[in-house]
Amino acid sequence: xxxxxxxxxxxxxQDQWASEAWALLPSDRHRQxxxxxxxxxxxxxxxxxxxxxxxxxxxxxxxxxxxxxxNSDALAPGWRDEVRALFEGAIVRTGVELALAIPDPDGIxxxxxxxxxxxxxxxxxxxxxxxxxxxxxDKVTKALRALAETAPCTAEDMDHNAIxxxxxxxxxxxxxxxxxxxxxxxxxxxxxxxxxxxxxxxxYLIVAxxxxxxxxxxxxxxxxxxxxxxxxxxxxxxxxxxxxxDGLWALADWRLPESNRPGNAHEVAINxxxxxxxxxxxxxxxEVIARYPVSAWRVKQCLSSDLIGETPEGLLDLVRRxxxxxxxxxxxxxPSIVANEAGDLVAVRMTVDKDVLRGSGLVVSLWLTWRLGxxxxxxxxxxxxxxxxxxVVRRGVGSAQLSSLRAEVxxxxxxxxxSFAVMLMADTERAALRxxxxxxxxxPRASP
Length: 448
Prior knowledge:
alpha+beta, 20 helices, globular
């Protein structure tokens, strides 16, 4: 079990009932068949390996799973209820989360128990997500396809869309969404675009991010493409319009005069209430989207602003006009975050990726800031590290971020692909990083 889980949840690292249930199987052949199936071997392949029929392998597998469940029930009578509780209200759980209910050092026994229980590692577009488990594979497939339909969007929006659909953001999600048969790909700056129209989608994201009409030459420069080709692509795409007489390119949904164009949805939301006064939420949402094309989710996030509140009549208005700031409801909890019962210790499981190595701020789930009591935006909290540096948590209107962790990751000897936990101690304003790869660490090992 990962050190960060033991530290936060208080699990006993000596609780090895899953390993014992595995060891108590009738024979090595039962273990070999179950492990082979977990690793993707077919019945025919295992039959050839052992010199027996595929039916014999199938029967051995069935008998092994039955005995494994019986052993587990005898050694840990409540484990089934714990697993069901973890899946309650969630279509996906990670192996790290399921270690809470089934502690197992190397994961082999846990994976075999989960399979016998009826859980699966979901597969979509021909890519199996080994880090995830589900009891409803069809729902995971639907959620992944719904997520793909939210493109084009920024990396930040994709992470939040994933959380809203019950999917854990991170490297596993990126791998399945960009697999060979999947419909999406990434832009140079990390945005998400549809593979079949990647150039047009990338241009859309650039213009949307800029917020003002652009020259085709400027869009092309960012994309590293020929201006003439980009202009022709935008001309064929109904999402773009060309302004006259200057010939700049804008989004067709933009409706504000260029001289009064705000920079983001939050500014539009404030402008709407400034001009129209108190509004029901439905009217507020409709007006913001009409002026600035964003998702309904993004409009809802504007309500976390410390400038927007609610009147006694239930209408939205500005706080400076007497509205009461809106108490943020608990966001969907990200599978990558755990907290102890007291709420004074929270940890975020992360992977060293290119954003970490380049020193970028790291997008995290809004559940983290909610748990830390940061219910309105903008808010900032600072947590001191033993190295003398800080982990800064920032709560924005539509997102939350951790400050760059590049130096701390380098000090711990981590490289691309390493997993680590950021532990935040809310009562003492202290923080710590823990390298959690274990024996499968992708970072090069120093010679003894």
